[in-house]
Amino acid sequence: MSYRNTEAVTLRRCEHCRKQYQFARSTSRYCSTRCRVAANRKRRRRSVHFQSSTDNWATPPDLFAELDREFTFTLDVCSSEDNAKCERFYTRADDGLRQPWSGVCWMNPPYGRTIGQWVKRAREAASDGTTVVCLLPARTDTAWWHDHVAEHATEVRFLRGRLKFGGSTNSAPFPSAIVVFRPTCL
């Protein structure tokens, strides 16, 4: 006597490649391990930390409070209305690169293509008598780091671990540093 499997075959559509497949477990969403891995890789690329959909990383409040106790900042040179750290601040609309910097400045610049311009401006402001404290990604292999930070910064403090920027649940995918340009910089 031969017995036949009489269970109904259930087909699903793979969430990655969209092919139909017969699934063995009710939790399977992909037709193969290959599709599962590819879908996870694609999902990681979509995470804000792994793409350039934003170049604004809000300063962690604890870090700023600690530095403010030490430096007593008077101007936030690049912020937005909702994340300004000082009473005086410049927004994107104000274009802080073109505004006068004076006193003791806090700078957490946009981390996109213009970061080199911001670091150069911080260095120039220091040569004009302003102290500028910067929160920067520790990208020691970049031209802007070599041209401005390595050669001209008064102090570089590499931060241990990865920061969690502005209420994010995930840590940044890059290390950070506090870079200080004091008026003695030339």
- Return the average pLDDT rounded to an integer: 84
CATH architecture call of the largest domain: 3-Layer(aba) Sandwich
Rg for CA atoms: 25 Å
CATH topology of the largest domain: Rossmann fold
Q: pLDDT below 50 for ≥5 consecutive residues: which ranges?
A: 46-53
- Overall 3D geometry? elongated
CATH class (first level) name of the largest domain:
Alpha Beta
Number of strands: 8
Features:
186 residues; alpha/beta; Rossmann fold; 2 domains; six-stranded mixed sheet; two-stranded antiparallel sheet; 4 helices; 8 strands; 19% strand; elongated
Structure description:
The chain is α/β, with parallel strands linked by helices. The protein folds into two domains: 11-46, no CATH class; 61-181, Rossmann fold. The chain is built from four helices and eight strands, in the order ββααβββαβαββ. The chain has helices spanning 33-46, 61-71, 115-127, 143-152, and strands at 11-13, 20-22, 75-79, 88-91, 104-107, 131-137, 155-158, 176-181. The strands form two sheets. The protein has a six-stranded mixed beta sheet with strand order 4-3-5-6-8-7, with helices on one face. A two-stranded antiparallel sheet has the order 1-2. Helix 3 packs parallel to helix 4. The longest helix has 14 residues, at 33-46. The radius of gyration is 25 Å and the shape is elongated. The termini are far apart. The relative contact order is 0.13.
